[in-house]
Design goal:
65% of the residues lie in helices and 0% in strands. By secondary structure, the protein is an all-alpha fold. It folds into 2 domains: 5-58, no CATH class; 65-106. The protein is elongated. The protein starts with a helix and ends in a 5-residue tail after the last helix. The relative contact order is 0.09.
Length: 108
């Protein structure tokens, strides 16, 4: 069973940031929460991104297969190095390498 992220973020916005409920981009993202990538986008718009909290949150990130494949396709399409991807998405190079080993044959 998956958490209802739409409801969670709506409650957070209503309680902490009611002015952001009027933003069209936030509302669009809120209505279309389907993948982890969507959740990360709305989280970046909603939350206060301090250095300490982003470091702690990074340890708790969990990517679904669809998002992993999307990231790997992006890397292949733009011929980016694992080092560049790790810096861009703030994750370990080992994580990206492991994804290539697990899902490399599924990337188009």
């Amino acid at each position: 069973m998956r958490p209802n992220y739409k409801r969670i973020y709506h409650d957070i916005l209503k309680e902490k940031y009611p002015e952001k409920l009027e933003d069209a981009k936030v509302l669009y993202l809120l209505d279309n929460l389907k993948t982890v990538d969507d959740i990360l986008k709305i989280n970046a718009l909603v939350s206060d991104s301090s250095r300490k909290s982003s470091t702690n949150n990074q340890k708790l990130k969990n990517y679904d297969k669809q998002t992993v494949l999307k990231l790997l396709q992006y890397q292949r399409k733009h011929q980016l190095s694992t080092n560049f991807m790790s810096k861009k998405y703030n994750m370990s190079r080992n994580t990206i390498s492991k994804w290539w080993k697990l899902f490399g044959d599924e990337v188009e």
